[in-house]
Amino acid sequence: MNAPYDGDRGQGTGGAGFSGGPPMPPGPGQEPPAPDPYLQAAYDYDPYRSQDLSAQDPVNEALYDRAAHPPPPPGTYQQPQPLYQQPPVAQYAPDPRIWAQTPPPEPDGPSRHLPYGDNAATTQFVGVDDLVTQASANREEPDAFAHLFRDQEGPAGSPAQDRPEPAPAPAPPKSGGGRASGLLRSSAVMAAGTLVSRLTGFVRSLVITAALGAALLGDSFTIAYTLPTMIYILTVGGGLNSVFVPQLVRSMKDDEDGGEAYANRLLTLVMVALGLIVAIAVFAAPFLIRLMSSTIANDPAANNVATTFARYCLPTIFFMGVHVVMGQILNARGKFGAMMWTPVLNNIVMIFTFGMFIWVYGTSHESHMGVQTIPPEGVRLLGIGTLLGLVVQALAMIPYLREAGFRFRPRFDWRGHGLGKTVKLAKWTVLFVFANQAGVLVVTQLATSAGKASGQNGAGFLAYSNAQLIWGMPQAIITVSVMAALLPRISRAAHDNDPGAVRDDISQGLRNSAVAIVPVAFAFLALGVPMCTLLYSSSGPEAARSMGFILMAFGLGLIPYSVQYVVLRGFYAYEDTRTPFYNTVIVALVNAAASAVCYVVLPAQWAVVGMAASYGLAYAVGVGIAWRRLRNRLGGDLDGAHVLRTYARLCLAALPATVVGGAVGFGLLHVLGDGAFGSLVALVCGGAMLLGVFFVAAKRMRIEEINGMVGMIRGRLGR
């Protein structure tokens, strides 16, 4: 029954024991056989037979005198070693002359390299993966000799002698479920706020176009409204988001007061700096309007209206910066919703303001209002409403700050607290923003000039901005959402110097976003006109149709624009901001050069359409350069064949869908007219045909990303 004592009973004279039972005695007149030297003691210490229950005799067990053979005291048996134990640490350094050296010991616990973002406790593995992830787990082996201690215990199962109590098992670590669920809730709140803000911003653009039209008056207001954002980003915005905010978070973790003094210094410094910038900008408003558009500046009526609008809008620079700093203070304290939801208040105030303008003066299509005929009261109403929207947005942050325990107290002791070194740290970010805004400035100049030269509505900068707003919404909703889930994994992989994981995650982000981005881009190409005639019908059929052609030109550029966004995340994961800056410079130069060519070569009414196509061309060039640089950084492999095959097959599936959907949409638009009803019917029917043909073609081509998305949807629906 157990090896150490079976040898005591049943040994023969020759010492060759048989643990299964007593030996057979020799017959009369027979001498015991001499022990075979080769078989002597061959089975005395058989570890397998001693634990074989079928080889144990119950009679011998019953007759066995346990009192004559007491067991050894507890603690003398060596504990069984786990199956997968860590190798001992070498006492000396490895000998370089030895070809195969012992690898260094692995840490205790699960030490296998798992995919980033996966948890072995929550991920279902099968086959070899399951064995690998559980190989280092110490499993308690059963004690084969525990039965020897049973007769030493009392009647109640208590030990007869005092034994040390086993150490209590360590408390299991917290799973972090509450923290994870809080993060998910915060992400959901931020995503919902961003989505609502985008939608209300889109409604705001619809109301502005309906009130002012898509001619010179609309361009004048759009330039004045865009000017504060450009100045804010060029002066404070880029460095504020990239440098000041990380230092703010660091001070909240390290300082004794939780970073409140640093936050007060930062908010005071930003308020003083932005106040000076606003004063200078308001004084230099005519020069800034000329810098944005010499066409508007050379028209006295348009220049007067644009300058007046700008002087109402430029103070919003101050409230933009205050809102950003307050929002980042809240984010550092774990309050994420306020910064995403308060812009909705700004949009609501502006929608109400322009709605009042339409209620008083009517839509642009009805009133035919221009830069010469707009009354000063109307300009004042729109200017005050635009400024009030940003004021409400900034002041709405104060209750959230008070709830988070922050009290603003102006502090002017800026020296010696680390605020001065931020200029060097923000260098590349500021240059990045400057290069981007320089390209926008060139396009603004050319678009306003082409719009006035064309002599028709919907061929200027406002039409370009409206079409770009519609075109960019899928990128903000789809690609940004996909990369928001993958960016932490990419950052961890880059931090661990695992280029293979970075490559796989970027490839996954590109292919997952392409499933939606590619058909949407072709949908803009096929149905851009009915889409804009439906949304911007209040500005007149001519202007809406022109914006539709601009949206069609933007359409296919959405694909390289989305790819560029994903690829640049790889550089940001490695904390490389210089490469994105150079890439942005190239994109801005190509965009400006191609737009200038379109302005010179194409007729005035088609120049802005060509500029929209140039935008996608510039990003296609930028993607080629960024892709090559990131591929070299990751060791020459970016899963290009897999990604290119996915995009090519999606585009091939979208081509017949575009032809069928576009033919249906334009046919219905021609039959029913380009009014609101005809545009709605054309958009719905053409879109349904486009999606249906695309889905059927993608299924026939067996595109795995489409099949995965369909399987996920069916799983969510329980089918």
Helix and strand topology:
Blueprint: H1 3-6, H2 58-63, H3 128-133, H4 177-212, H5 216-254, H6 260-283, H7 285-292, H8 294-298, H9 300-313, H10 316-332, H11 337-361, H12 364-367, H13 376-395, H14 398-403, H15 422-425, H16 427-454, H17 461-495, H18 499-535, H19 541-555, H20 558-573, H21 578-601, H22 604-633, H23 640-672, H24 676-700, H25 704-717
Helix pairs in contact: 4-11, 4-17, 5-6, 5-9, 5-10, 5-16, 5-17, 6-10, 7-9, 9-13, 10-13, 11-13, 16-21, 16-22, 17-18, 17-19, 17-20, 18-19, 18-20, 18-23, 18-24, 19-22, 20-22, 21-22, 23-24
Poorly predicted runs of 5 or more residues: 1-22, 38-55, 109-184
Q: What's the overall geometry? A: globular
Largest pleated sheet: none
Helical residues, percent: 55-70%
| Rg (CA only) | 38 Å
By DSSP (H or I, 4+ residues per run), the number of helices equals 25
How far from one another are the termini? 57 Å
The percentage of residues in β strands lies in: under 5%
Q: What is the mean predicted local confidence, pLDDT?
A: 74
In terms of quaternary structure, what is this?
A: single chain
- Derived structural class: mainly alpha
Q: H/E order of the elements?
A: HHHHHHHHHHHHHHHHHHHHHHHHH
